[in-house]
Amino acid sequence: MTKNLGNAKPSAPAKEVNPSLFSKAAPALFPLIVAALGYLVGRHFFGF
After folding, report:
1. What is the distance between the alpha carbons of residues 41 and 33, in angstroms, rounded to a whole number?
2. Where are the transmembrane segments (predicted)?
3. What is the reported pLDDT for 21?
C-alpha cells in the first residue's frame, strides 16, 4: 500500500459539475431504444 504524501494534484475539478437532464435520462431510455430498434428490425426482416 502506498503512503499519501498530500502533494498530488487532484485529478477531478474541485467544483462539482451538474449532470444534464439527458445524462440522467439516458440510462432509463436505453432499454426502450433497444426494444424499439429490435421491433423495427424484426418487422423489416421477419414480417411481424
Report:
1. 12
2. 21-42
3. 78
Confirm if 28 and 21 have CB atoms less than 8 A apart. Answer: no
Contact 42, 48 (CB under 8 A): yes
In whole angstroms, give the CA distance from residue 25 to residue 41: 24
HSE-CB of 43 using CA atoms within 13 angstroms: 6
What digits encode the pLDDT tens for the residues 1-48? 667 777 767 676 666 667 787 788 888 899 999 999 999 999 999 876
Residue type, 36: A
